[in-house]
Amino acid sequence: MERLAFSCLFLFISLLALADAGSIGVNYGRIANNLPPASKVVSLLKSQGLNRVKVFDSDPAVLNALSGSDIKVTVDLPNGLLFAAARSKSFASTWVQKNVAAYHPSTQIEAIAVGNEVFVDPNNTTRYLLPAMKNLHDALVKYNFNNDIKISSPIALSALQNSYPSSAGSFRPELVESVFKPLLGFLRQTGSYLMVNAYPFFAYESNADVISLDYALFRENPGVVDAGNGLRYFSLFDAQIDAVFAAMSALKYDDIKVVVTETGWPSKGDENEVGASVPNAAAYNGNLVRRILTGGGTPLRPKADLTVYLFALFNENNKNGPTSERNYGLFYPTEEKVYDIPFTVEGLKNYHDTPRTAVPGNQHARTPVNGSGGGGGGVSKSTSGNTWCVAKGDVGKEKLQTALDYACGEGGADCHPIQPGSTCYSPNTVEAHASFAFNSYYQKKSRAMGTCYFGGAAYVVTQPPSAYSIPFPFSCI
User: What Rg do the C-alpha atoms of the chain give, in angstroms?
Assistant: First the structure.
């Protein structure tokens, strides 16, 4: 009994010591017609110990309600205003005056999210992003807020070309020179951080046959070793974030911090939305809170304590899309909890996840390319549940040929269709044939963890190779 008491005391002291290891916030979306007034929402946040909130606009009622609350706020300049903010310094200055200077510091605005998942915005606003951010920063300097308030922009994981293994994380090639190098340079110059939206739910939903649910929900599992860096991952969330860190590192921006501006799990979904349930949502968010408040950084950056914003505060009944879109809330509009999880170190003392009953099934785990989404405009993900394995053309013909020989030989890929005179021989290039062979092997192995690597010569895509202009015998996909 004394040993048990000592263990409990030690755990409590450990939790207190790690209280500043990370920070939990929440996204306060309002695409609904039945939500409580902002004043009651602020009281709810305070009662739950939530001291960070992110909104998708700069509504005066919300910002006034937050005044004097000591809750830190991230406001958003919507995608629809990017063009105006990029074109006109005067517009950007006026926007900051009306939406920031009018409230700060009584309302503790700590960041401006410029747009949301701009690279997947169908209105093609990417070109306006960085100019808008620079004009807004200039406006902050004008009001002497630039040291208090950071400027960034939330990216979806679809901005990555590759995220498996995590060590091979890279940004989409067409975005590197035009967006990410100047964006990361701006963040470094202004002392800001990269905002990232990450949703392991989408990866699990689309690949439940090869991704362990325990791996997706932060539960006990054997882990997955990244062949590129030798690190073992015990959660899909960590693997996704480290893919972003690796992509930044590849561009020599190891010093930029990451804030996870959206992540969550739906408590309800349509029949085909595998994994959407109250128990799974409770497990994901509850274990994530424990992971962030007590777990330090990621395997790749163990000292990089994370700030994470859960998506979302309420179920929002007016959101479009599948049923899951309306059921990410931690609370019903009545302010009743959808499921009971803590948000503070103190609350973690009495928190216990209820593991699922073991069921047979494939327990492989894999980090997908697309685990993005959320936000005011709806959750984005691959429109297909399929993934393909393709060759990295930039590794050189010699490395591709070696990997191709392995795939068609010892690997047992079906390479007959790419032999001379066969249906998939054209285009007759090493890269195209390697992509075919790699994909044959990958699909044969049921897209399992580690089957699309080939010594760094391959990577996973979530759309058919033709969507990326990747050399491939397209008629043979």
Answer: 23
Say what the pLDDT of residue 475 is. 56
Confirm whether 374 is domain-assigned: no
- For residues 237 and 317, membership in a common domain is answered with yes
Its sign, for the CA torsion 161, 167, 168, 174, is positive
Residue 316 DSSP code = -
Per the domain annotation, does 302 fall within a domain? Answer: yes
Does 363 map to a domain?
A: no
Beta-bridge mates of residue 331: 314, 337
Identify the residue whose tokens are 């050189």. Answer: 396
Contact residues for 383 (Cβ-Cβ < 8 A; gap 6+)? 463
For residue 439, the enclosing domain spans 388-476
| DSSP-derived secondary structure for 49-96 | T--EEE-SS--HHHHHHTTTS--EEEEEE-GGGHHHHHH-HHHHHHHH
The string of pLDDT tens digits covering residues 372-389 is: 344 443 443 433 346 788
What's the average model confidence in pLDDT over 48-73? 98
Which active-site residues does the annotation give?
117, 262
Residues 107-130: tens digit of each pLDDT: 999 999 999 999 877 677 899 999
Q: Is 263 exposed, middle or buried (0-12, 13-18, 19+ CB in 10 A)?
A: buried
Domain boundary among 348, 380, 403: 348
Q: Do both 79 and 220 map to the same domain?
A: yes
Distance CA 297, CA 310 (A): 17
Single out the residue of 275, 297, 258 nearest to residue 203, CA to CA.
275
The number of domains in the chain is: 2
Does residue 344 share a domain with residue 392? Answer: no
Same domain, 206 and 76: yes
Decide: residue 20, CB within 10 A, 0-12 exposed, 13-18 middle, 19+ buried: exposed
Percent of the chain surpassing pLDDT 90 = 62
47 plus 132 within the same structural domain: yes
Q: Give the confidence band of 71 by pLDDT, cuts at 50, 70, 90.
A: very high
CA distance 263 to 259: 11
Last residue of a domain, one of 348, 374, 396: 348
Peptide bond just before 165 cis, omega within 30 deg: yes
Does 322 map to a domain?
A: yes
